[in-house]
Amino acid sequence: MQEMFSSITANMNSFSYFCNMDSTRLHKVSRLLQKDLGDIFQREASIYTPGSMVTVTKVNVTKDLAIAKVYLSIFATSDKIKMFENIKLHSREIRYKLGQKIGKQVRVIPELHFFIDDSLDYIENIEKLLDND
């Protein structure tokens, strides 16, 4: 009975080791995507978002590395929705440029799903509300 218990414990420890390794890999890929997408938006800003500035605030990658949820903050423009739609229209081109940058580091270039990160607007709104009191 003791041998069986120690065998199960050993299997559980190796399972948690693989889970931690998996999340570390996901975290590294997320950071890599965030950095390289930021570079792409910085260099190609005039094509995708003329007259505005885009920052990649966060990237979440699925466990199979097939899909990346990319959160963007769009500044210095009055029409964020139009700029965001323009980015979504060019998502295949952005993915291609990303593939050229990271193609040697990952096997599959993830499909990019873009979202607007409005957390800074939310914080600014809270600060305005607190200043008015």
Task: Tell me about this structure.
This protein has 133 residues and is α+β, with helices and mostly antiparallel strands. The protein has helices at residues 2-43, 45-48, 80-89, 91-102, 119-132, and strands at residues 53-61, 67-75, 111-116. It has a single domain (2-132), classed as K homology (KH) domain (GMP Synthetase, Chain A, domain 3). Strands 1-2-3 form a three-stranded mixed β-sheet. The termini are far apart.
Topology:
Elements lengths: L1 H42 L1 H4 L4 E9 L5 E9 L4 H10 L1 H12 L8 E6 L2 H14 L1
Parallel strand pairs: 2-3
Antiparallel strand pairs: 1-2
Short description:
It contains 5 helices and 3 strands. By secondary structure, the protein is α+β, with helices and mostly antiparallel strands.
Task: Quote the distance from N terminus to C terminus.
Answer: 67 Å
Order of helices and strands: HHEEHHEH
Integer average pLDDT: 83
Give me the CATH superfamily: K homology (KH) domain
- Percent range for β-strand residues: 15-25%
Low-confidence stretches: 11-18
Strand order of the largest sheet: 1-2-3
Name the CATH architecture. Answer: 2-Layer Sandwich
Q: Which range best describes the helical content: under 10%, 10-25%, 25-40%, 40-55%, 55-70% or over 70%?
A: 55-70%
Please tell me how large the radius of gyration is.
20 Å
CATH topology: GMP Synthetase, Chain A, domain 3
Number of domains: 1
Structural class: alpha+beta
Count of helices?
5
The 3D shape can be described as globular
Number of separate strands: 3
CATH class: Alpha Beta
Quaternary structure of the protein = single chain
- Outline the biggest β-sheet: 3 strands, mixed
